[in-house]
Amino acid sequence: MDTNFFRTGIGGFRSINDKGDDMEMEYKIIADSCCDMTPELREELDVTSVPLTLTLGEKSYVDDETLDLPAFMVAMKNCKERIGSACPSPAQYCDTFEKDRTSFVVTLSNNLSGSHGSAVLGKKLAKEEKNAEVHVLDSKSASAGEILITLKLRQWIEKGFKTQEILAKAHDFIDHMKTYFVLDSVENLMKNGRLNKVVGKIITVLHVKPLMGADGNGNISLFSHARGDDQIVTKMTDTITKSGKKTGGQNVVITHCNNPTLAEKLKASIQKNFDFSRILVVPTKGLSSVYANDKGIIMAF
Fold first, then answer.
1. Does the first or last residue of the chain, that is N or C, have fewer Cβ atoms within 10 Å of its Cβ?
2. Are residues 143 and 276 in the same domain?
3. Among the three residues 145, 175, 205, which one is the final residue of a domain in this structure?
4. Does 258 lie in the same domain as 149?
């Protein structure tokens, strides 16, 4: 039986089989606010964002479009107290789920944040209250990695894949996705237990910029180090070569915290050496900026 798909509006897809039977199939993509989205990208991919809360000492900030990021970064730099974050509540997630749409939720790595667990609890609430169909995906990554997954979800939806096909593809994609990042400072990662303090102190003493990344299980590992932007670009480009992954027809996402110059240098190097169909450069929002810190850069492919 042949089935044709046409768009019913942003995020909605209706399928009609060869007998003319109308079989509505609507999808919704949701991500926590570590999935850095410009307004244009959010509109293109139709992604609903669920904000985390950022904390500088006793002061809290909601990581949404109301956050004054430049002012927040200044406050973070001057903060002498604990810097952290809190995940969205299950109720916040539940509020985004709709009875008549199948929702795919992309979260921060479960090993780095409670956002994934909160989304799972929100899914249970939505099942009880709305009988909503929800599928929660652990990105095993953050920032650029979450964007990359939402790109693929939108592509699979637009190609007309069914729910279980999309889930199978998503899990396989996440298992093989690579995320790397280079930071000017690892202070916030150490303060919040995301990086071993011994490793962090060694990095600080040597005055090098660490090349770190996801270890495949959602944890952060140290892979190498670099001195200067040229070496950062070379080493991050080399990670793509060494991965052995095919790049034709694929996407790569680069996110940066106040470092567009380095991001564009990396993009140019990737364009020169590989045949990705799309290379996205996106500035980090609140949560990603907390951990990437000023001048940090993240790449996922």
1. N
2. no
3. 175
4. no
CB atoms inside a 10 Å sphere around CB 294: 14
User: Does residue 93 share a domain with residue 32?
Assistant: yes
Q: CA–CA separation, 263 vs 296, rounded Å?
A: 10
163 with 194, same domain: the answer is no
Cβ(209)–Cβ(131) under 8 Å?
no
- Put simply, whether the predicted model's pTM sits higher than 0.85 gets the answer yes
Number of domains in the chain: 2
pLDDT tens string, the chain, 301 residues long: the values are 333 333 444 444 443 434 343 345 699 999 999 999 999 999 999 999 999 999 999 999 999 999 999 999 999 999 988 899 999 999 999 999 999 999 999 999 999 999 999 999 999 999 999 999 999 999 999 999 999 999 999 999 999 999 999 999 999 999 999 999 998 766 656 555 555 554 545 445 445 588 888 888 888 888 888 888 999 999 999 999 999 999 999 999 999 999 999 999 999 999 999 999 999 999 999 999 998 888 999 999 9
Write out the residue range of the structural domain in which residue 17 sits: 3-52+87-175
CA dihedral 136, 138, 141, 147 (to 10 degrees): -20
Contact, 14 vs 32, CB < 8 A?
no
